[in-house]
Amino acid sequence: MLNFECDQGADRLPVTVIGGARGSGKSTLINRLLEQDGSRWAVIINEDGEQAVANELCDRITGPMVPHATGCLCCVSRSGLVDSLRRFYAKRSAGVIEFDRVLIETADDADPAPVLQTLLNNALVTQYYRLDSNVVLVDAARGLRAEHHVHKQIAMADRIVVNRTDLADTQALVSLESGIASLNAAAPTLRANHGLVAAGDLLGAGLFDALRGAGAFEAWLAASVDAEQDAIASYCVSLEEPVDWQAFHDWLHTGVQSNGDIMYRVRGIVNAHGLPGPVVVHGVQHVFHPPLLLQAWPSADRRTRLSFVAEGLESAVIQESLARDLPYFAQRALERQQRRERARLDPSLPV
């Protein structure tokens, strides 16, 4: 995660991920989106819905789209999702098909992490595609289900659609939205009947658009989140003073190795010594997008800020670790630099 990447979002096709329980109206929402949006779409489906998706560029994947390898995606280079995305792009490059957006519908019980990881840091995919938004549907008639994967889907979402609101009374809707907010207070929650939601409310939630819209970066960073509970927590921590980038990288890498399975999503902007601009970090569990070095700050706030969606990892633990461990990693980084300098002056010395 140490090497920086420049912002290449304009050269990559945006991908929207839509998840939710079976019967929540995913296929209906997709058809509504395809009808009203002027984009040309390619659609990848991992579930047989009650309603067919009306799109000529449609690929179906049976079984898991992205298999796990020892708990993370690092060793998984090819999967049904990767093959489908690459096949679409190859045909597009050859002029056989045309599309400028991709939509992925996940299975009802799917863990969203592997799909998001693929779009963040799979070299076979990220040279062509970028994550635009992760949308989750919740059926108002059924309420907030207790299953863990449902809560995780909501917690990791960029947009939440409460569908079939005509089948729930006002009190039930308020209670449902309160439960959703306890899991994810940052993502906009939209009400819909029969999947009717404006495309502009669902799309454009990714980092590329956040860096180009006034105030949009704050929404992407989810910096206003401050809700914690015993199960899944959302919160933001900050540092007032600039940090050593190598030390911060080592701190975050160590934290991911120890707690990556419960760090569902991490977004942040880092004020690092000696760099021309801030560094943006974005990760899903063990997998991180290459750090993005910006040439200018997206807002007047110059603090290092980190937004977490985690389970069983309190914000106080993160704050204590930053205060205690960053100086340790900074000292280690300084010692490594000193050894490299001595070795440069005297090649007989070990690095």
Quick overview of this protein structure:
Helix content is 34%, strand content 22%. It is an alpha/beta fold and 351 residues long.
CA(first)-CA(last) distance: 22 Å
The arrangement of helices and strands along the chain is EHEEHEHHEHEHEHHHEEHEEEEEH
CATH topology-level fold name of the largest domain: Rossmann fold
The count of strands amounts to 14
Strand proportion, as a percent range, falls in 15-25%
Spans of 5+ residues with little confidence (pLDDT < 50)? 68-76
What does the average pLDDT come to?
85
CATH level 1 class label of the largest domain: Alpha Beta
Total domain units: 2
* Major β-sheet strand ordering: 3-2-4-1-5-6-7
* Rg measurement, Å: 21 Å
Provide the CATH architecture of the largest domain. Answer: 3-Layer(aba) Sandwich
**Percent helix among the residues?**
25-40%
How many helical elements?
11
CATH homologous superfamily of the largest domain, by name? P-loop containing nucleotide triphosphate hydrolases
> What structural class do the secondary elements suggest?
alpha/beta
3D shape: globular
Biggest sheet statistics: 7 strands, parallel
